[in-house]
Amino acid sequence: MTRPENQSGRHDLALPSVRVNWQLKTLMPVVFVLLSGLLLFLLATVSLQDPERHRVLVVAGAGAVAICAAVILALVYIVQRPMVELQDKIERLGRGDLTVAVSFAKRNDEIGDLGRNFNRMVRQLRESREEIERLHRTQMSRAEHLATLGELAAGLAHEIRNPLAGIAGVIEIVSRDLPVTSPARAVVKDVRQEIAQINRILTDLLGTARPRAPEMRSSDLNLTVEHAIMLARQQVLSRPIKIELVKAPEAPEIGHDSDQIHQVLLNLLLNAVQAIEGAGVVRVQVKTEEEYAVVTVTDTGAGIPPEHLPNIFRPFFTTKGNGTGLGLSLARRIVEEHNGRIEVSSELGQGTCFSVYLPLKQTSLRAVS
């Protein structure tokens, strides 16, 4: 058995505590007055030879008894009845009844304060349960939506990719027979790009609807971020955009699927690059905060309008002309599969900051050695 530890860090011997019922504590002074009255009666009996003294003692003893009776009745009405009611309401609360309320909350004393605090606690519990139920319904609706989306994505992949592959093959054959100077070659190039765009849309759709489970490995998050930045820098070689990296000094290795987190960060980096017109900076920082490793991607772009912020993680929502609207939805899904979260803040004309939070210690996830 462990011994309690005091504030100085030393272990002291646990002293046995005696629990005294509050009624006993309250009745102790009453019992003292009653015993005093009985003692007065005894003295009165002894002092029968002195009638005057005897009369005074009898009156004092009777007064003490009357005071005791009055105090007991007052305690029953003022203290015991509210405590019995409170105990009954607590039992009902323990059975899940969040509509209970004590009637003595209107009293202007300490017991009234207790009643008001109890009613406020029950009200907060009721509101919290209603909020939890609302969130549960939202999550269930989202799960049903994603399940339907998964079935739709599988069907689309089968029904679209097969004829699309045939179209791509025909385009390749046709392009071989075209003269070098034929203007149709430009059209063929555009068709190839559109075919590649359709394939990307299908791939993102499948990834959003049916993501694979993350394969957790303990590795340096700095290396995962560096790999994503290396690929993103290849996209801005011809543009006046600088991508900076601030690593976490002595960051511990964390369990994560480096391929999936790399996909998330690359998506955020490319979005940041596309948000910048002309010269600009994308700053990536890796740091640790309490129980999380945090990767922030901050750009100096145009920012996101406030009315769009609540929708940016919804599937198919996009403000870009050639975007699929699935990148951020898939990114959030991957991070949530890692027991993490994504937060975003933006200001028009100043830029946008995405923060990816990943737990330093993963639980309930399949690890791969």
Please characterize this protein's 3D structure:
- This protein has 369 residues and is α+β, with helices and mostly antiparallel strands.
- It has three domains: 22-97; 139-209, Helix Hairpins (Orthogonal Bundle), CATH 1.10.287; 217-359, Histidine kinase-like ATPase, C-terminal domain (Heat Shock Protein 90, 2-Layer Sandwich).
- Helix content is 56%, strand content 12%.
- The chain has seven helices and seven strands, in the order ααααβαββαββαββ.
- The strands form two sheets. It has a five-stranded mixed β-sheet with strand order 2-4-5-7-6.
- Helix 4 (184-209) runs parallel beside helix 7, helix 5 (221-234) crosses helix 6 and helix 6 (258-275) runs antiparallel to helix 7.
Task: Looking at this protein, list some descriptive labels.
two-stranded antiparallel sheet; Helix Hairpins; alpha+beta; disordered C terminus; 369 residues; 3 domains; five-stranded mixed beta sheet; Heat Shock Protein 90; elongated
Q: Tally the helices: what do you get?
A: 7
Assign the structural class, choosing from mainly alpha, mainly beta, alpha/beta, alpha+beta, or little secondary structure: alpha+beta
Residue share in helix: 55-70%
Average pLDDT level: 77
The CATH superfamily of the largest domain is known as: Histidine kinase-like ATPase, C-terminal domain
The total strand number stands at 7
Strand order in the sheet with the most strands: 2-4-5-7-6
What is CATH's topology name of the largest domain?
Heat Shock Protein 90
The Rg value, from CA coordinates, equals 38 Å
The total tally of domains equals 3
The CATH class of the largest domain is identified as Alpha Beta
Beta-strand proportion: 5-15%
Tell the overall outline. elongated
CATH architecture field of the largest domain: 2-Layer Sandwich
For the terminal residues, how far apart are their CA atoms?
A: 37 Å
Sheet with the most strands? 5 strands, mixed
Q: Write the H/E string, N to C.
A: HHHHEHEEHEEHEE
Low-confidence stretches: 1-17, 365-369
